[in-house]
Amino acid sequence: MELLMAVTAGLLFTAAIYLILSRSLIKVVLGTGLLSHGAHLFILTMGGLGGDAPPVLADGVDSFADPLPQALILTAIVISFGVTAFILVLAYRTYAVHKTDDLSLMKGNDEHD
Amino acid sequence: MTLEFVLLIFLPIVAALFIPLLFRKIKGIHTGWFVLAVPVVLFIYYTTFIKTTMDGGHALSELQWIPSLGISFVSYLDGLSILFSLLITGIGALVVLYSIFYLDKNKEKLGNFYVYLLLFMSAMLGVVQSDNVISLYLFWELTSISSFLLIGYWFTRDGSRFGALKSMMVTVFGGLMMLGGFILLGIMGGTFSIRELIAQSSTFVGHEFFTLALVLILLGAFTKSAQFPFYIWLPDAMEAPTPVSAYLHSATMVKAGLYLVARFTPIFAASEVWIWLVTGIGLLTLFWGSLFAVKQTDLKAILAFSTVSQLGLIMSLLGAGAITFHVDEALFSFAMFAAIFHLINHATFKGSLFMIAGIVDHETGTRDIRKLGGLMSIMPVSFTVAFIGSMSMAGLPPFNGFLSKEMFLQSMLAIRHFELFNFSTWGVVFPVVAWIASVFTFIYSFYFVFKTFAGKQKIGKLPRKPHEAPFGMLISPVILAMLVVTIFFIPNVVGKWLVKPAVMAIQPYQYSHPSEVGVHVSAWHGFDSPELWLTVGIVLIGGLLYLSLSKWQKFYGIQPDTLSLNALYDTTMMFSEKGMNRLSRIYMTGLIRTYLLYIFAFLSVTTIAMLFLQDAFAVDMSSFSKISAYGLINAVILLLAVAFVLLSKTRLGAIISLGAVGYSVALFFVIFKAPDLALTQLVIETVSVALFLLAFQHLPKLSDHGEKKSHKFVNAIIALGVGVTVTLVALSSHSQKLVQSISQYYKDTVETEAGGGNIVNVILVDYRGFDTLFEIAVLAIAGIGVLGMIKLRLARKESSDENK
Questions:
Q1: Taking the model in full, what pTM does it have?
Q2: Which of B129, B533, B774, B793 is 20 to 30 Å from the Cα of A110, by its Cα?
Q3: What residues contact A103, with CB distance under 8 A and at least 6 apart?
Q4: Is pLDDT above 90 for B167?
Q5: Among candidates A9, B266, B344, which has minimal Cα distance to A17?
């Protein structure tokens, strides 16, 4: 299962990086969304995918999934949500001000050196 | 209690603090008069040490600076330091006196001038008296800085700024090299004290750092003392006010390199490289400088090249003097004496010549030798001084230059007899080059004095009507000229008081008392001495060449400007500025894609390379859990959704596909027994998609802006590289777990310690509550940021810009 998940996370990264390298601002935002999904799955896989039950104490259950990566991912999900929301609005504002979403046009000029 | 004379090094700096105040408050009196007291007092004080050094003794005064690092200010006064200290304060006093009449108290910024000058004086005293190499370096750089300030004194002129920058570049380059050499010496000897280094210098020979330290320290000395090929800054430094040129660029600062070579001779004289470099470069500089002095048309430029040349002469003598380390014969013993003796002589005659050049400039308004002539009858005193100085420079009796020139030729002849280090084969080159250089020295000395003062009067063409300089301006050059003559008649007194103690300081392995330096200077060696005939030859050939100067001077025009060392310097500077600018413009495109490409390419290449190098590909399949059918199906769904995000042509399609990815990630969380994660992921994904849809109206249409195929291909390659890297790292690190998870602790104590059952939640709010606190902060900041971006409209100003 870890092999499958590692490949899935790798493909998520590939897609995310491809989008981030594109010239369209909105694709970059989409890419960061995919990137955080890939990272979360990566962390989960690294913690090991074994365990018979959720990490909640219950009678007669001995083998839990590792709770620490889950706690880390939970934190990461919230933070990446905050950041995604922020850059989404940033992209919206950039588009509103510059009337373009072509990143190759957003390179400043010599006055800003 | 004795006076801690190390503090006297700082006296000029302390005095400098009051100069601007005096300059502002006391308008009636020229500020220079207050300054004059400083070098005079110091000069008188340092003369009291002559008695000690004449007996072969020394005086020491120490001020701790950073004891834990072995760094201190030390004033170590032996024969060599006293000689230099007297030169610095003595010539310093004369130069200050001269500057009082040279610089106008109403037109010039005297406050600046004297502050820089006093700063320089302190720095120079520090250089020659320091026994600690680190404080020596500190003062060394302070001389570079104060020299920079003095050259750029008339900072509104382009030439001044160019000259100041050039001298700064060259000397600071050398200074840094020298610091490297000092640190290597400190590593070799375990101390920064020069005396202690000298004491154990015999253990350095053969050390792996020995030759490197030697070359680095020589680089420092050669750049400061304007040796070939670093002399290029000195002619450009002539933009400085003439008192500065007289003081720094003839008598003191340019001799700091000579001092350094002399001071470190006991450590490095054992090396063949040292003797060859110091003697060879010195002789080359002597020849080169004398050759090009005749080409110059500016009085100060002639003097600058002549200084370069004479410094080369002293340098070559210092190298020849180091031979005594190997062969203790009378034949070589006077080279060092000659070096020190000529050093004194040069300071006297060159100082006076610079002052005369300044006077000529001051009284006629030009320094161009082609416009000058026939000033002899108008400026008789100046002419007399110039004549004495030039004849001494040319090496004619009855002036002190004659004595040192004779000893120089004698030393160069003696080098032929030195049998080590291939000198027996190549040694014959030395007297020949020295003789030719002396001929050119003779020519430019005559050229300097007679083209200016003899010949036809061209008064009508001069910018100012010339007349003799005021009395005050003449005092200093006249005193120096009198010294030139006096030293000729009493060379042995000077030798006994100043030169021999200095020689003893340079050659401690050979002498234990100054009187052992068995050199007796005499003006007349008899007809059978070869030096006499060499001098006669110099006068005859030099005289003939001088008389035919107009016929062959044009040959200097053959050398194109683009093949000079100055052109090399200019090209180097231009390349560093423009070339580096161009280089950074190539890779800094301003496009975010470029930078991301660098980052991602670097990340995947280095990571994969490290995995490969460390042989970390081992994948342990046995640690993997079974592939479940749900997992497989979900993975396929997720990847399909990802593919839709990539391929979608519309915004809506992409957003919905992104949502699908999020939900299948949530499903993964369910499969892998993470209920809290699944809940959060579902909610957050929903909110995210809602956010995207909210902004939908305002978002741009999906477009690749007609991106080139090749760009897309590179992007895909890099993206794939990162993906492969991630997969490899995941597999490799999962297979090589070194320690057990700490989660067992959480499982064991979650109920007893924290009183909860949901381990993930207890970790979030109890075990690792700080994470949660700041994650809340992140959300708050993001919220405020979003609000700010939507509400805040600082763009009003920008939009008015756009309308322009």
A1: 0.82
A2: B793
A3: A22, A23, A24, A25, A28, B591, B592, B593
A4: yes
A5: A9
